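USER:
Working in pairs, take the chain set out below, taking as long as you need, and write a paragraph about the fold.
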Amino acid sequence: TEEYRDGFRSLPLSVMERIITHQSIPCPEVVVYTAVWIWAGGDDAFLSAGPGTPTKETQSRRVYYNSGADSLLPHVRFPLMMLEDLQRIQASSLHVRSVVLQNLVREALEFAHNKPDVDGKSLLDPSVSVNGVVDRVLLDLHGSMRFRQRCPRGCVPLVFMYNGDTNGVCHYIGTNYGKQAWVNPMSAGRLGVTASSPASRCGTDPKALVDRSFSRVNFAGPRRTDHGTLESWWILDLGERHRLRCTRYSLRHDGSSDFLRDWCLQGSVDGASWDTLISHRNDHTLKMPGQYASWPIREGDSRHKFRYFKILQTMPNQSAPNPTHLSLSHVDLYGDFFLH
């Protein structure tokens, strides 16, 4: 209602800033943007503000415009929005009037199309660590917050810092939630790992997938499905009491040359029904033995909390010596961790 809008618009800038920077706002990021848009006056305000002549329609209305919107907009996490939301914002009057919004939407669209450019660094292209040499993406605090999911109460945020870090869920569970020295979480019975091929000393070692040491040979071989096709996969079971809203995941290739090219990451609550969180098609990121790489998962694909996570090869890599081997030395997942 108009009365509600007037009351909302009367909030001081400092109060609005405290609201939209809160880490546990339980709503999609586009709703946070809409709150800023309403607070600043909505379309009527931006049609009549700045250069240009107001129309008769806007002249006849009580137009309210709060120029403090530009100081609030950088706190909105545009890179976490769905592409269609960004496109709607791009067509709005506020986008036409606000250079700040134009820059933020452009940054988010670059992120959506896998081509962000911040000080010459790509935030989405995975930074690579080979043989312990780490290429870290360093951003200012406010800039980096735009790329992080808000974390609701009752969860632990496991934030990716760099490839090979110790911030992921497998490491966190392995330390008994940070209470003791790390042990392999599968050996300790705190999580489970299964592969599409039987465990063996000379090829498939589920415990190695969540271990901290490098595995020269560790692959999930093909298994025939009920439909007669072959699938290769690794599945992580975080445990009955554990759930993760995954925002990023990291892989380390083993010592072979069977590099992944076509695969997806899936999540499941029950281990039977799977949702695809991210798909890779002809992805040549992994190209060196022992190489780390990581990928973000956008907000629209990471709103659900899952117990199980599957890395599934979707097509054989015909250029590899063993096309159906899903070869990995290590996996870890990041995001909002819930303990039930």
Residues 47-64, 115-142 have pLDDT under 50 and may be disordered.
